[in-house]
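Purpose: get a first structural picture of the assembly so the mutagenesis plan has something to point at.
Setup: two entries, given in the order below. No constraints added.
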Amino acid sequence: MGKIELRDFDGDLTALPSMAYDTLFEEYGQDTWLDLNRPEIARHLFADVPDPRFLIGAYDGTRLVAFIANVPRTYRFNGRTYRGVASTMMAVHKDYRGAVAYLISECLRRNAEFGADLALIILEKGKHSWRLFEQALKPKYRIEQLKPMWAIARGVDLDKIVESQHLKWYEAAGIRLLGAHRPIAAPAVSGTVRLYRDADLGEILALTRRYSDQNCLVRVFQPESLARRLYTEGVTSTLVYERGAAVEGFINFTVHELVSRQGRYRWAWIDFLYWEGLTTKEQQALLAGLWQASREQGCIGILEWDKNYYAKGALFRSRFVPYPHSIEVNAWILNPDLSLQGIDRIVEQIV
Amino acid sequence: MPPLEPLSFEDFQAMLADLLNVDVAQLTPEAYFITDLGIDSLRMIQVLLQLEQRGFKLSLESAWRIQTVGDAYRYYQGQGNDG
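Result (structure tokens, whole complex):
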């Protein structure tokens, strides 16, 4: 062990879990953690990366010891467009924890070269990376906390949820009492809920451009990146609501794996959603379709992070309940003319 | 403001030992902060910021250059020569 070198990630996706898993098991103990290092997720995220300089590896010789992905993204905010990166998948081998400082150092340099206005960073309160930012970096650098996000969840397989989340008997009983584990009933509606097809891309792209960017950070999609987001086999899926041959709404989700020492558990995370023109019943119909699609893909539950850019009444009517987990969305501001303080809505995926 | 008196390597070691809370004997010029001293990233950045408060100018973008105790001292000496 010796000198750490920072260089473009060499593309070996098998090195990511080898590097990160021991550290994650140690940090999370008996709790579950989100596996961003599995090759399917990595491949999906990296498809949006046009240049290897956005993927930074810290190496001890040929061994990957730390990693971070800066995935380039475009955002709208208060009528202007900004160049951003989503800094994600930060992970380190447990014998090289200090290498994260070097990764952050190199990120800053590369993001400045790229001309990024901001870098989005998602942190879990209490974890090592959160302490790093809170105690060491925020006092010195322009890192704005944009929004805390709490989650609500809907059961698909309650027994697996009880097992993986170590729910107490009264917590499980509460979920059963509410009916938050049963299939979501699909109300009678005039339209159709179905899986996304390639031909829907243009209509969905148009819907994403309707998000208001007033006091809201909005992800801007190009057709190619949106197509990947809407459907990548085994990773992302989308349900659409079609009324009169027009796509009027959609729910997009990622199938994530939460890992603990007990095993791996699939969850459907709602990422992007548009249902402004739908009635509450139509929204519930879309959620019923999501529930079925989640079950078919082996998910034990559905998770929604309160990004606050859509009405949530249909979610609560469909028995989504509080899930004891929260994150903080932060932005490292690199453009001195930009401030995101006070925004209350974010149209972006959590990863 | 008059320039700070340049530190000898021994004084620099003592300062680092205090910041890192390690035995000064471990802080040989060849000692790697991460792999030999086991400094984690939080401590690493806190130390860089504390060194900055003591007159040691280092931007976070250049932090990756400081891998050993010797690197840190050479970087410190180089700043002194630049005046």
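Chain A has a mean pLDDT of 95.
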